[in-house]
User: What shape does this take?
Amino acid sequence: MNQLLTIFPAFMDNWIGGLALMIVMSYLIMKACDVFELSTDYLGRNMSEGVKGATLNAVGSSMPEFLTTVFFLLIYSGSDVSEGFAASVGGDTGSAIFNSIFIPMIVIWMALATVAGLKGVKIAKKVILRDGLFLIVAEIILLVLLSSDYITWQHGAVFTLFYIIYLTYTLKSMPKAENSEDDEEDDEEEEMEEWHEKFLFKAKDGRNGRAWILLVFGTALIALGASGLVQATEFISTDFGINPLFVALILVAAASSVPDAIISYRDARKGNYDDALSNVLGSNIFDITISMGLPLMVYLWFNDPIPFKAAGETLIDIRLMLIVVTVITIAIFYKNSNKLSMRHVSMLGLLYFVFIIYSLSAASHLEGHDNVFANTAGMLVEYLNQPGGLTDTLRAIANSITGGW
Assistant: This one.
């Protein structure tokens, strides 16, 4: 463990201290993302509905996942780097599952509960198709490439390049904004209660510059929160004696996804359901590509490849679950795009419950526990990892692609 980056007190080095630290850092990230969101809202004020959610909102709300990956690589650098990287993948994967299931569930429930006469939430099918198909392709790339024996900077470059392609396509699909900049600025001035709102709108001149200052300040606070999440993961995993991958998969994923939930909730309150959903899907694409790929590319440019064969085996079932969950949720959204109701909220809730139970069972199996849940999860893991099975097939495909990297 890199002690230079261990900035939180040693007396918190237990699961209680780790959980408390994670709660505090989650709150810090939430407030920091308010600052980040205000700046991106202003800088992207002329973007069309659906595009802003998939780009600026998604990047802003996914910044915690991006910086969490950075700190997992730095804090676990050295002999534990493969374990740290596996934990970062777990965090990004868990965040994507949380975004796909839990956030839409809350948004749909909130809309139906608070909007008088609303029988169902309507989402544009073009948003579901555009972001959903890109997301599934990104997850397939994740499944295949992370089956390599060694992870190199080129792996990160592929993920980064894929996001650039997605971003380019999304921006090119954006229709021209109809409202003028002056009109948008007048709308922003209606309510200024928070300090960052007063700072941004205190004068007509220089708002773009102040928005960039807020962007940098918000990013710095998110970085502090992300560092705390990583150290809390170490405290909890060490105290319980479990792989940090599973702590990240559930707890870090939920803590770092708070901004996604808040942004989608606010969009839904305004009736911008396309933005609420595109933020979720766009955030997932960002989590899987940039949040993981860009830090990985930069880190491995200056360091040796990560031996990932053993760590990758603990992720094969989680990566498959991510694809299954995504396909199911996108199918639900697409088929019922004109009327997402409480029945669909219940379906999403059940799906997330199954994910949590399986994750805990897989963690129990990895630690060698003997119970019905651990043994059930172990049957799937052993089936996937049997000689000549899916893991070996994916490894052969991945190594044939990445062998010269």
In short: The domain at 10-402 is CATH 1.20.1420.30 (A middle domain of Talin 1). The two ends are 28 Å apart (CA to CA). The chain has 16 helices and two strands. The chain has one domain: 10-402.
